[in-house]
């Protein structure tokens, strides 16, 4: 399918603000997987594309980082809370304990509340559609710092395992990362549309 921003859900322009948080960065590459695939490279690419897709729909996007810099967790939360955004989405890639290649799949986390759960659910519904062959690990509750300490509805997306045989092969591909970015954007827009 052609990833045409025109086909994304429409929300009123200039009304919504969303924070996109690419995990890790700079000297902290996050998980390093098969063939040296680095989490930070995967998630920064996806996050920048999410930002672009949302911007074309008139959503104001704030990125916690837009290049390879060292950024601790508290400043990400402070920046998000100061922005008074409508939603916060942190984008990550997973690694299995012991680098098990048989562990693959996508999961989306929220911390608390109906809105946080709904945001995670809307995003998860879309990313699963584009990740053929990767197991659906579901929407889960977690106490990750960035989603626990943000004031707005928040979700943390794990786009696959850089250590997984199935996922790493996909995450290396630019077109798969673009599909994931499109899917995440669609989920966010569906959430905003419903939240009204």
What does this structure look like?
This protein is α/β, with parallel strands linked by helices and 196 residues long. 40% of the residues lie in helices and 19% in strands. The protein is built from six helices and six strands; from the N terminus they run βαβαββαβαβαα. β1 (17-22), α1 and β2 form a beta-alpha-beta unit. α1 (39-56) packs across α6 (174-195) and α3 (114-130) packs antiparallel against α6. The model has no long low-confidence stretch (mean pLDDT 96).
Can you describe this structure in just a few lines?
This protein has 196 residues and is of the alpha/beta class. The protein is built from six helices and six strands.
Shape: globular
Order of helices and strands: EHEHEEHEHEHH
How many β-strand stretches? 6
* Distance from first to last alpha carbon: 28 Å
Radius of gyration: 15 Å
Structure classification: alpha/beta
Helix residue percentage:
40-55%
Strand order of the largest sheet: 2-1-3-6-4-5
Annotation field: number of helices: 6
Chain-averaged pLDDT: 96
Major beta sheet summary: 6 strands, mixed
Task: Name the beta content range.
Answer: 15-25%
Poorly predicted tracts of residues: none
Write the layout of secondary structure elements.
Elements: E1 17-22, H1 39-56, E2 60-63, H2 73-83, E3 87-94, E4 106-110, H3 114-130, E5 136-141, H4 145-148, E6 154-161, H5 165-171, H6 174-195
Helix pairs in contact: 1-6, 3-6
């Amino acid at each position: 399918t052609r990833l045409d921003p025109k086909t994304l859900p429409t929300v009123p322009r200039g009304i919504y603000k969303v924070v996109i948080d690419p995990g890790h960065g700079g000297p902290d590459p996050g998980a390093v997987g098969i063939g040296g695939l680095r989490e930070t490279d995967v998630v920064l690419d996806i996050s920048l594309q999410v930002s672009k897709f949302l911007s074309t729909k008139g959503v104001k996007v704030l990125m916690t980082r837009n290049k390879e810099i060292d950024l601790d967790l508290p400043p990400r939360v402070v920046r998000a809370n100061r922005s008074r955004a409508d939603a916060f989405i942190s984008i990550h890639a997973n690694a299995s304990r012991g680098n098990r290649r048989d562990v693959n799949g996508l999961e989306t986390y929220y911390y608390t509340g109906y809105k946080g759960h709904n945001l995670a659910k809307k995003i998860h519904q879309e990313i699963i559609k584009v990740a053929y062959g990767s197991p659906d690990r579901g929407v889960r509750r977690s106490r990750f710092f960035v989603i626990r300490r943000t004031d707005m509805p928040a979700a943390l997306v794990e786009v696959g395992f850089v250590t997984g045989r199935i996922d790493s092969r996909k995450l290396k591909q630019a077109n798969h990362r673009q599909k994931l970015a499109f899917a995440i954007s669609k989920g966010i827009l569906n959430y905003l549309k419903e939240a009204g």
